[in-house]
Design goal:
This protein has one helix at 2-23; strands spanning 33-37, 41-47, 51-55, 58-62, 65-71, 74-75, 79-89, 96-98, 101-108, 111-119, 124-138, 141-154, 159-163, 171-175, 188-197, 205-209. The chain is mainly beta.
């Protein structure tokens, strides 16, 4: 009986090891080949809803925002599939406003759109907007942020949704910011942009796959 039990134990161990080895490939590997359609392509971005930003619970809203960018196919993970050449917040007669008054946002571009993961079933690419640099001015208060912001892009709608965490986009410099806008505090951005091929209604696509 003891010998039989030993054989069963060995057999069970072999089976378990086999299951582990066969199960490992089931987890999807991150996409490494990114195909943009068409590529390269110039695109325009306009906000599909109000853009809301905040630092330490102090919130401001921008009702108008527009940007221009170029999308292109790429290889790697992460991979830069887009470059935002210019972006503006606010417009004539539509300033970004807060409880502290109007706020002026001055971006330093280019920014990038970096792809990290793609879900074929939904056509959603996850990644982030990178190389973000921006000066924000409220009266005599001036502060700068530097970092990135998590984002997703959906092929069926052409929506680029930005929704970051506080640690991704910290304040790196602050003048007259006090305890409201201190160095190290994080800027939160919640925004939705509609992306279209410049001068058309065509929505570009981003597809990630493995070779």
């Amino acid at each position: 009986m003891k010998k039989s039990t030993g054989k069963l134990g060995v057999t069970a161990g072999v089976v378990a090891s086999a299951l582990v080895l066969t199960a490992a490939p089931a987890s999807a590997a991150p996409s490494t080949v990114w195909t943009v359609g068409p590529s390269p392509v110039g695109v325009s971005l306009t906000n599909g809803a109000n853009i809301v930003m905040s630092v330490n619970g102090i919130t401001w809203t921008c009702t108008k925002s527009a940007a221009t960018a170029t999308l292109r196919s790429a290889t790697g993970n992460p991979a830069t599939v887009g470059t935002i050449g210019s972006i503006a917040f606010a417009a004539a007669g539509a300033p970004c406003s807060s409880v502290l008054g109007n706020i002026t946002l001055t971006p330093t571009t280019p920014w990038t759109f970096v792809a990290q993961d793609h879900t074929a079933g939904t056509g959603v690419t996850k990644g982030y907007v990178g190389d973000i640099g921006m000066k924000l001015t409220i009266g005599a208060t001036v502060f700068r942020v530097r970092g990135r912001a998590s984002a997703t892009y959906t092929n069926s709608t052409g929506r680029l949704v930005v929704d970051n965490t506080a640690t991704e986009l910290p304040i790196t410099e602050s003048i007259n910011g006090g305890t409201a806008f201190p160095v190290g505090a994080g800027l939160l951005i919640k925004a939705t942009y509609l992306v279209k091929k410049t001068g058309t209604t065509t929505v570009p696509t981003i597809v990630g796959s493995n070779p």
